[in-house]
Amino acid sequence: MIVKVTNLRRLGATVFLAGAASLATEIGASRLVAPYFGSSNVVWANVIGLMLAFLALGYWLGGRLADSRPEPKLLAQILLASALLLAATPFAARPLLHLALHGTNVLSIGIVLGSFGGVLVLFVLPVTLMGAVSPFAIRLALSDIGEAGTVAGRL
């Protein structure tokens, strides 16, 4: 499959925007969790650590999926699913974080467990899907295995 230059630009823009969205999601997650668990270093560590884990999982899953089905339509579906899940997150956050706060309030490590569980449940799917974008785009742009590094670096 040969990818046109205009498609490479679109793929590059898609990867850039997905990366920016993942960073914005991380910052938004910390703001969403803060009213319930504060913004201490422990809460930030949970948010950052989980976001990195979700992205790593997405990179791995995206690479496997792209190798089995390298279709632009599937990439679009991944992006749409991620966007819809992120759009639903603020609505699901209040009841879920309230439950996490009160469910772990009696524990001395409630802030750690509550913020960890809240971020885990709210963001695992959309951020993992965002992580799948980069390897998928690389696979779509790759016409020769010998240029894999160049294509990955460009995107």
Write up what this structure looks like.
- Helix content is 85%, strand content 0%.
- The chain has helices at residues 5-37, 41-68, 72-104, 110-131, 133-141, 148-154.
- Helix 1 packs antiparallel against helix 4 (110-131).
- The protein is elongated, with a radius of gyration of 18 Å.
- The two termini are 17 Å apart.
- The model has no long low-confidence stretch (mean pLDDT 87).
Summarize the structure.
This protein is 85% helix and 0% strand. The protein contains 6 helices and no strands.
Distance between the termini: 17 Å
Please write the string of helix (H) and strand (E) elements.
Answer: HHHHHH
The total of beta strands comes to: 0
Separate helix tally: 6
Describe the main β-sheet briefly: none
Helix-and-strand structural type: mainly alpha
The average pLDDT score comes to 87
Question: What is the helix content?
Answer: over 70%
Rg, nearest Å: 18 Å
From the spread of the alpha carbons, the general shape counts as elongated
Assess the beta-strand content as a share of residues. Answer: under 5%
Q: pLDDT under 50 segments (min length 5)?
A: none
